[in-house]
Specification:
Helix content: 55-70%
Order of helices and strands: HHHHHHHHH
Distance between the termini: 6 Å
């Protein structure tokens, strides 16, 4: 699948409020085409088009950073609140709590489980947002250098590597792992001996057949796909991605396989 179509698919599968925050890849492609046509004409106004292209790239980066940092801050707060809720339920209705109650404990933990799954899904979508926008920038810059004979890609990618939207390992990736540890520790998937029906019921209860978590699995598979070697693979390509070893993720993948074509 060509990158433009993959990006369009990802935008459609993303959360509605996120859809105008992705790379304006189509507009940038038009600028590259315009610049290359000017380059072929003697004394063409190529410098104006190049300046507009660089200006547009910088605006895109600013857009990515503003959106990413806003989401990151919100996710940090939500994760902290979830950890506090878990401890409160354990202290109140847990086996050694002040008012032990298996019914209340299961009910409240069930609500927390759903909220953790939703948070995990949105975190994965944000990781995918970073990955696919970085990939888009790398591809459009390679296209620019190839068609115009310019040397913009290397210095611009060096700049991108230092941007907040790209440095997901500092916070977002850690939150993803912490959510997975919490899910697998407090809400383990049904044991193998319990049978496939119970396992399917548990998965359906957490995520359902649609929603954020299903989209996050699609995002994980897309990240895995775009990190594989391609015609644009090079020193600044994203490294291969290994999907997280989580019971819940494995269950969703097996129950609802989403092909990447």
């Amino acid at each position: 699948m060509k990158f433009g179509k993959r990006l369009k698919q990802q935008i459609q599968e993303s959360l509605p409020d996120w859809r105008d925050k992705f790379l304006a890849y189509k507009d940038l492609k038009k600028l590259v085409k315009l610049i290359s046509s000017f380059s072929a004409v003697a004394n063409g106004p190529v410098w104006k088009a190049e300046a507009e292209f660089v200006y547009s790239l910088n605006n895109e980066i600013e857009k990515f950073n503003a959106f990413f940092m806003e989401q990151e801050e919100d996710f940090i707060i939500r994760h902290k609140e979830l950890q506090q809720r878990i401890q409160m339920v354990i202290n109140e209705w847990g086996l050694n709590g002040s008012h032990p109650s298996n019914t209340n404990y299961k009910e409240e933990m069930g609500k927390i489980r759903k909220d953790i799954v939703d948070l995990h899904g949105e975190l994965v979508l944000l990781e995918n947002y970073s990955n696919i926008n970085y990939t888009g920038l790398a591809k459009i810059l390679k296209k620019y250098d190839k068609r115009t004979g310019g040397l913009l890609r290397l210095p611009f990618i060096q700049k991108v590597l230092q941007q907040p939207f790209f440095t997901t390992d500092l916070v977002v990736s850690k939150l993803v792992k912490e959510c997975e540890i919490t899910i697998d520790t407090l809400f383990p998937a049904a044991k193998e001996e319990a049978g496939s029906h119970e396992r399917e019921t548990a998965v359906m209860a957490v995520a359902g057949t649609e929603g954020i978590f299903r989209n996050s699995v699609a995002a994980l598979l897309t990240m895995q796909e775009i990190r594989r070697g391609s015609s644009t693979y090079g020193h600044h390509s994203l490294p291969p991605l290994n999907l997280p070893d989580s019971d819940l993720i494995r269950s969703i993948q097996l129950q609802f396989p989403i092909p990447i074509v």
